[in-house]
């Protein structure tokens, strides 16, 4: 039947969930219900009704490396291979829509969910996500990139307002999503919890209609984050399709009433219903090949894929030469070969015959994923100690725990580790250290960039033995490394999935040549981060005062020294870049492997802005490619210019523009190592050709009209309104100065200081309530979460969710048990009117139940 023939109530019912993970279907219209599941790096198909925080039991599935780790491969083809495996498992586990990948820009290293996000740079995030999306959807399963958009902190995540200027929004925080939408065509997208300049993302017409649908051509479903919808009516108007998980029939009643008042038209509903029908049709398999369980063959095959992804993503951060003799001589760089006798050679890869002392709780009890809704019930599990014991030609001289996993002081553990390291039976010490489960989690931002003191003390003590120390670092985001100069080598494995241990050992022993490069800058200390002074924001308004100067865009422009620059990564091979040339489609250059060892490097192309043109960072990444080379092999690499290469957003004209003038293009293997550079002139014809070609293709190869230019590139002139950024003083931009940047786009509103709470203030803020009951609820939840984290080493996700949740989410998360009138009653309690609020709540409960029964009866009459 034609969808327009459905009743208003039937249409409204299709726009909210039926349960925690299922949409509503309509048999009369031939629209089946579809199943959604978390899945950024594994399918979390929960048993029974489930929950959205990863607390309930879920079916076994492959745990692949997290997005922050996969990104370090700089290999969209590898991400696509992982996506195909993810989509296959989603299909087999009866999942229609996989909620991932996470694509938010890493604004600050303390964001608790950074392990789920790709990069501080939108080109990397967009291209890596595109690969994953293509892979997932090749199985007929919808990918659902998230969280759209400007979602940068976990504190107050459901009650935070991201205040941002339009140019920063467009150029930095939306570009990754734009690349993914244009190049991979996802069938769904998830809106974020937060407001953007005063308007919730799920009802932000500027975001969902003007940009996502009209500009980028998105034709799929926009689903709210779980409990992230505010007004169902405003969402339908703005372009929000599906409200999840299940508000019961509360939203249905609101939509029907809005149509009756003339506030909403049936045509508005028809647009959203058509999007539901489309995703249901695209992902409908009729149960073919789906048995809700993974076969042994699939489990084994996908474990191998997870290992290959981890191997391609591991980053070698340091590998110094140490002087040893004979059998104790570590593996040497093959470019020089291994000499007999007393020689100095890189400590990695470990040489056959090496006797290795393994130290660290994380070596025996692995941590390979983060906490929260993405947590996977892995099909297999490995640990580094076991894999080293299984490695040929390597002897494990012993194992010591070294530290309490969750940071407690225990000097005896350090002394035992030092005794093992000092033993004559030990040639080298492998220290496996990192962050624990409670450090990186959905719902909780990190409090520090430091490693636990117990681990720092351990490394210092191990170094003092005089034995070479190799550090394996397990973490989903940067940490401070005060011991970096003292250790012989360091390998960053990130959160590398269920096969990460074997991948790490294969790199340590030389079976795999490391080729990962960092996709975020590692500052020397947290105070160097541009947003350090005001992150996370405990109040409602989170002002993005640093503008586009995030990550390397800030450090390179302000000339702030860093521990590891963006794009950094070492190898057991060595590479040379040469022969850069600009032509009418992009740049080409040669890459040569100068060593005897096959390996891969990440070629990166950066662009400087037009001299005297719009204010912008000193350098911006505009292209990259993973280049694999055999021993002494050379390849010519071409990187094309596309719609993203030279553009900037003109706020006054409210459109993208390509500035004409001289540009400098630089190429190398990280932002601080760019040996090749060329100058070119972008003409008006160039701009038109790039725009036309970008509209006609998505492969990054476009036509252009670049002319060679001799003059030396001049520094970009500072826009006087943004001069603060160019001298690195972003921490001191005043409210008035920031308001100038926002201009007419600033429509956010500051939280009142009156102490009066509303339906959009988080329950954590009740700790300052005048009402005893509300204040007690907030204090009990806060205390419970802290005690659980201390006792178990795991965050209390339920308590965190409730603390961050505003009362309005109660009517979105309770399957219709609570409606908006009952929320208003809860707010009365928060404002100190406990008896009045409780009375209103009880009366509202019975009214709500009666109204829900009427809607259910009406819907049943149409069956």
TrEMBL record:
<dbReference type="InterPro" id="IPR050288">
    <property type="entry name" value="Cellulose_deg_GH3"/>
</dbReference>
<dbReference type="GO" id="GO:0005975">
    <property type="term" value="P:carbohydrate metabolic process"/>
</dbReference>
<dbReference type="InterPro" id="IPR017853">
    <property type="entry name" value="GH"/>
</dbReference>
<dbReference type="InterPro" id="IPR001764">
    <property type="entry name" value="Glyco_hydro_3_N"/>
</dbReference>
<dbReference type="InterPro" id="IPR013783">
    <property type="entry name" value="Ig-like_fold"/>
</dbReference>
<keyword id="KW-0378">Hydrolase</keyword>
<keyword id="KW-0326">Glycosidase</keyword>
<feature type="domain" description="Fibronectin type III-like">
    <location>
        <begin position="601"/>
        <end position="671"/>
    </location>
</feature>
<dbReference type="InterPro" id="IPR026891">
    <property type="entry name" value="Fn3-like"/>
</dbReference>
<comment type="similarity">
    <text>Belongs to the glycosyl hydrolase 3 family.</text>
</comment>
<dbReference type="Pfam" id="PF00933">
    <property type="entry name" value="Glyco_hydro_3"/>
</dbReference>
<keyword id="KW-0119">Carbohydrate metabolism</keyword>
<dbReference type="Pfam" id="PF14310">
    <property type="entry name" value="Fn3-like"/>
</dbReference>
<dbReference type="Pfam" id="PF01915">
    <property type="entry name" value="Glyco_hydro_3_C"/>
</dbReference>
<dbReference type="InterPro" id="IPR002772">
    <property type="entry name" value="Glyco_hydro_3_C"/>
</dbReference>
<dbReference type="InterPro" id="IPR019800">
    <property type="entry name" value="Glyco_hydro_3_AS"/>
</dbReference>
<dbReference type="InterPro" id="IPR036962">
    <property type="entry name" value="Glyco_hydro_3_N_sf"/>
</dbReference>
<dbReference type="GO" id="GO:0008422">
    <property type="term" value="F:beta-glucosidase activity"/>
</dbReference>
<protein>
    <submittedName>
        <fullName>Beta-glucosidase</fullName>
        <ecNumber>3.2.1.21</ecNumber>
    </submittedName>
</protein>
<dbReference type="InterPro" id="IPR036881">
    <property type="entry name" value="Glyco_hydro_3_C_sf"/>
</dbReference>
